[in-house]
Specification:
The complex is a heterodimer.
Chain A: E1 7-12, H1 19-27, H2 36-60, E2 66-73, E3 76-83, E4 89-91, E5 97-99, E6 109-115, E7 120-125, E8 131-135, H3 154-161, E9 164-170, E10 175-183
Antiparallel strand pairs in A: 1-2, 2-3, 3-10, 4-5, 6-7, 7-8, 8-9, 9-10
Helix pairs in contact in A: 1-2, 2-3
Chain B: E1 3-7, E2 12-16, E3 20-21, H1 26-38, E4 43-47, E5 53-54, H2 56-71, E6 75-79, H3 83-91, E7 99-101, H4 104-109
Parallel strand pairs in B: 2-4, 3-5, 4-6, 6-7
Antiparallel strand pairs in B: 1-2
Classes of the chains: A alpha+beta, B alpha/beta.
């Protein structure tokens, strides 16, 4: 597998038993020139993002190879997960089903993926079909009903940790491309 | 078994006996916790001291287990979380949902 300068790429094997080893391999390749405290903070964020992207690969890529690549840019890191498994399908908060490849009418729209007392997750789809995940800022001490709380945290974790988190389905290659951009 | 259980006088001590709490054992964990509730366990103190990795699948099972426990008049207390796992719970605001303590002794003192 080719790697350019400032890049690290691994193919994830669809075996949850290898989970920790694959995360560790990626984490150990991150060159950071920050203070000790900053380094620990960035590595912690990277760890959770990698865990969630790899978990997403296990869950949704089927037998298709999942590739995780990391590209080191000025004051940041781009973590990209690619696979040729089934395109993303989401059931939105209002029950509408959103699936890729997107119908052109679904470009240029905002959609609410999840809305409960503690977390609200949205998707902003631009005119090119690039979907950006965003979280709403909610009051700190909002009362909640336990039964209403969602049990799906993968996209929430990545969105909260990143400067930006996007999904694109590349029709020409059949690739699902998730990109998490971390700034530091 | 994902969990090791020891019945104490006032509570049930539950240790997650896995280093990686993830997709590979999330469903089994949920099943074992629900079975524990069904046996009548009330105050379950869940010890994370051996856990170094948690993913969203496992966190989902943890929340599902809490919902089930509460619905049956039971409760789950979390203890001995590594700092980054505590930070992760805080990130998704589950620190508001679970009672979290540094140690089993502190959790017991709150009962």
């Amino acid at each position: 597998m080719k790697e350019g300068p400032g890049q690290k790429k691994i193919t994830i094997q669809a075996d949850p038993q290898l989970f920790g080893r694959q995360v560790d391999e990626l984490l150990s390749s991150i060159p950071l020139e920050l203070s000790g405290e900053e380094t620990a903070s960035v590595l912690q964020k990277c760890k959770w993002i990698l865990i969630e992207l790899i978990t997403n690969g296990y869950k949704h890529s089927g037998d298709a190879d999942t590739t995780i690549s990391m590209e080191f840019v000025t004051n940041g890191l781009e973590i990209i997960k690619e696979d040729c498994g089934c395109p993303l399908q989401l059931v939105l908060h209002d029950g509408e089903s959103l699936h890729w490849p997107l119908h052109p009418r679904d470009h240029n729209r905002n959609a609410c993926i999840l809305k409960e007392e503690l977390n609200e997750l949205y998707l902003n789809i631009n005119q090119d079909g690039v979907a950006s995940f965003t979280m709403a800022a909610l009051p700190e001490n909002e009362p909640y009903n336990l039964d209403n709380l969602n049990e799906h945290f993968g996209f929430i974790i990545i969105t909260r940790l990143c400067h930006s988190f996007t999904y694109v389905f590349e029709a020409s290659t059949g690739k699902n491309i998730f990109k998490a951009v971390l700034s530091y | 078994m994902i969990i090791k259980v020891k019945q104490q006088e006032k509570y049930t001590s539950v240790i997650i006996a896995e280093r990686e709490a993830s997709l590979k054992n999330a469903e089994a964990f949920k099943t074992e916790m629900m079975q524990l509730v069904d046996t009548g366990a009330t105050n379950m103190i869940l010890n994370f001291s051996q856990v170094t990795y948690v993913d969203s699948s496992f966190l989902g099972s943890l929340v599902a287990s809490l919902k089930y426990a509460i619905s049956k008049g039971s409760d789950i207390y979390l203890v001995e979380l590594q700092k980054d796992i505590y930070d992760l719970l805080h990130l998704i605001r589950m620190n508001k949902v679970f009672k979290i303590f540094d140690s089993e002794e502190q959790a017991v003192a709150s009962l």
